[in-house]
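To: structure subgroup
Subject: Chain for Friday's discussion

All,

I'm putting the inputs and outputs inline so they're searchable in the archive.
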Amino acid sequence: MHYVTGISCPSEYEAVALTPQQTLKVLEQLKQPEYTMVVLVAVTGMRASELLGLRWRDILWDRSEIRIRQTYVHNEIQQGAKTKLSKSSVTMHAILAQLLKDWRSESAYAQDSDFVFASAKLCGRKPRCGSMVVESYLRPAAVRTG
């Protein structure tokens, strides 16, 4: 169930588990920055809200670490991780680091204070909207691959 303006209503959402082969097919359909977003969540286990709250300064390249300093929830930046059980940092593999460096070189918002996945529509003032990424890019890529 999900809630709309305080009213409980059933959801049509049903999680689907993908095989590694299916996942690769979906990834092949994605372009930047959606590709990097999906890989980052998949290999680190970060929550979408943590990913959206990332700024370039949160990536500690020399330590192969990503610090989770804030989250982006309900169109607002919130300081800290979502829960006390959430890690305050995650390890970054060298392949992921290169993927992020490649995305940074393409991004119009590449200053340390910029969001890693900044909204072009909002001129980088806020991160992209997670539900829009799913609806406009991830779900259609999954449907195209069957």
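Points worth raising on Friday:
The helical segments are 20-29, 34-44, 48-52, 94-106, 130-144.
Residues 130-144 form the longest helix (15 residues).

D.
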